[in-house]
Description:
mainly alpha, 2 strands
Amino acid sequence: MNLNKKAHQVENVPVNVPVNVPVNQRQKNIILMINKYKKITTKEIFMQFKELNIKTIKRDLAYLKQKKLIRFTGAPKTGHYELIRIPNEIIKKRLKKND
């Protein structure tokens, strides 16, 4: 009986996604680029970061999708990325620049 009780217990899981999602400088640049163009393909991002390997860009995009900062819309070949939200650390930097 005690085993069943433990199986039905819910862990203390946060309800909301953390607001301060840590992102590196490359990922910040990708977020800002998506924000600027509203819709952008992997190829267009790659063209802006020619010094990076396409695998690095895809890995960063996957991380940003996992953190629910961006989403991919459309077919794999013709789809694009859209911004869902901007992390607070990027917003704070942009506000400081505008002061």
